[in-house]
Structures are given as C-alpha cells and as structure tokens.
Design brief:
This protein is mostly helical. The chain contains 6 helices and no strands. Helices cover 85% and strands 0% of the residues.
Length: 200
C-alpha cells in the first residue's frame, strides 16, 4: 500500500512539473479578475447577490457534518467540471477562472466594507486549501484543451507527437492528480469551511 501511494504521488509530482505553466497562467487570470471584482464591483451586482442569497438558503438548517458534505460535493463537482471540460479547447476552465475570480473579488470587497478587513482572516484558512485545488483543476483543464489542439495539429501536419502532448496521457495523468492531490485538498477545505461557517 505504501509503494502504491509513493508511486502515484511521484507520478503526480512529475505531472505537476510538466503542467506548472498552465497552473501559473490560470492563477494569473484568476488574480486579475479577482482584483477587478474587488476594485470595481459594478458588474452583475443583482446576479451575484442572488447567487449569495441562494447559497445562504441552501445551507440554512444544516448541521456541521451536512454542511461539510455540501461544501465538499459542490467544490468537487465544480473542480472536476473545470478539469474535464477543458477538452473543449480550454473554454470552460477559462470561464470558470474569470467568473470565480470576479465573484470572489466582489464578495471579498463587500465583506471588507461591511465587517472590516479582519473578515478576510475568516476566509483565509480554508482558502489555503480550496484555492490551490481549484487552480490545479483549471490548469489541468487548460492542458487538456491544449492537448486537443496539439493532437489536431499533428494530425493535419502529419508530424509525430510526443506522448506528453497527447490527450490520452494528459487526461489519465490529470485524473490521477485529481484523485491524489485535488480531492484531499477539497476535503480539508470543506471541513475547515464547514466549521467556520457554523462558528460565524
């Protein structure tokens, strides 16, 4: 069992090194849209408040364990979709990155304006785990989108492609990374966020 985990985490590290610039690209887009949402919270105000209200109603009445499960499953679904639907030329992870960046920037601005800067410390602990998980999913989605384009290019040009450029390799290794790295991060984030929400 120990060898099984060591082997898979070594494979994950290898894939991380090959995918690092896709992660950096995704984080850059997220950071930019977060800053826009924080500095200029003027777009889609009614829609965002509607989303927040819907989330508040969805978690109302749930105990801590139910809340943790709800948060984890929501984050799991969103992260998997951001990764898997990257095969559509990276469009879905790009939209996920932009929407979530702006949404979190907007909500952070409202929280600071209402409760002060120290409100950010209540968000920070679970963000340490949740944000990397989401960014990893988005980065893998971008890599899958790039693989589709690369496969098409090699097919048209007749040039031989390397194994690392292929969609099959990247999807398989991306799924391994999702199971062994992203899911554990989301579990920890869900536990911390569920407990913090109940304490607020």
């Amino acid at each position: 069992m120990k060898k099984f985990f060591i082997k898979n985490y070594l494979k994950c590290w290898e894939f991380f090194c090959k995918t690092r610039w896709f992660f950096v690209f995704g984080f850059g887009i997220f950071a930019l849209t977060f800053l826009i949402g924080f500095a200029f919270p003027v777009f889609f105000r009614a829609e965002i408040f509607g989303i927040v209200k819907g989330l508040v109603l969805a978690i109302e009445g749930k105990n801590t364990l139910e809340l943790i499960g709800f948060i984890f499953l929501n984050n799991l679904q969103a992260s998997f979709m951001a990764m898997a639907l990257g095969i559509l030329f990276g469009f879905f992870p790009m939209m996920t990155c932009i929407v979530n960046g702006y949404l979190l920037g907007f909500v952070a601005r409202e929280a600071v304006m209402t409760d002060g800067i120290f409100m950010m410390w209540k968000i920070f602990p679970h963000g340490i785990f949740e944000l990397p998980a989401v960014m990893f999913s988005i980065g893998i989605g971008f890599r899958l989108g790039w693989s589709v384009v690369s496969d098409g290019w090699h097919m048209v040009s007749g040039k031989r492609k390397t194994r690392e450029n292929g969609l099959g390799y990247n999807f398989r290794e991306g799924l391994r990374f999702f199971v062994f790295v992203i899911v554990p991060l989301l579990v920890v984030a869900g536990v911390i966020e569920g407990i913090l929400v109940k304490l607020m």
